[in-house]
Amino acid sequence: MNKAAPCIIAIVNSKGGTAKTTTAIHLSDALVRQGRRVLIVDLDEQGNLTKHALLRRIGRPPGDSANWSQATSDAEHSERERLRAAHNIVRIARGEALLADSVTPTEIGDLVASHADIPDLVREVASDPRLPARILTAIESAPYDTVLIDTPGRAAFELTLASTLAHVLIMTVMPADWSIETLPVIEKAFDAAGRDKPRRFLFAPVVFAEKSNHAEFLQQLAELAKSRGRIVLPAIPRDENVQLRTEAGLALSPKSHAFLRFREMAETIQEVQVA
Question: How many CB atoms lie within 10 A of CB 103?
């Protein structure tokens, strides 16, 4: 029996600072906790997802040394530099490495690390259609249930590449008029990528803990989603604790509101994959 191809999910927005990487990290974590085999692809040259995953992999050094943070940071940096040479999506796309040889196991899934040459790679895609096809072939034949792709903000090339690969796009939506207005732009880019497979577009609202009155924003998003046949995922709480733990390479507390929301999101994603 042939293995079912994994569901490829890209997390996108046309702007930075819209919780894309936070969503990719904690959604992947939630899926892994639910027994899913997850591959995470860091398509952002800044590599914040890669950094978080490696910090989780390295862990806190034993003891209560005052310089533990610096020691961990140094170890993460050393590991990230090692991966830059071999374990990255650029080498896979160019046919220089196999996917199986380019993943690093972490707590939140198998990682294909970020690389400084990603902007060059996505420009090559425009002139060489073999590159995304090579990535897609590698991913679809790999032993995963779900593939999550993190994308940068303000980078049309990366967005186009992610849209070409993905079955599902999750767009993080901020409680602001500009965020709502960009939804059709991203949808158009996704549709223009053109794949002969069913695709879904999901909205992930981002809400701020210090501003509790988001009812109007959520209602507006719900109405827009209904009119366009889209799904609205559970709202992502964005607060200082989530930000600090994410930047420090720490998992969310299992009792926290954010942890429970990402768990709900993972359950919804699995329902979408089955549908």
Answer: 21
pLDDT one-digit tens code per residue, 109-157: 999 988 777 777 777 877 787 888 888 888 888 999 999 999 887 656 6
pLDDT in tens, 92-112: 888 888 898 889 899 999 999
Tell me whether strands 109-112 and 7-12 are parallel, antiparallel or unpaired.
Answer: unpaired
Q: Cβ distance 182 to 13 under 8 Å?
A: yes
Residues sharing a CB contact under 8 Å with residue 91, sequence separation 6 or more, in sequence order: 97, 102
> Pairing state of beta strands 104-106 and 236-238?
unpaired
Whole-structure pTM value: 0.86
Bridge partners of 149, per DSSP, are 10, 41
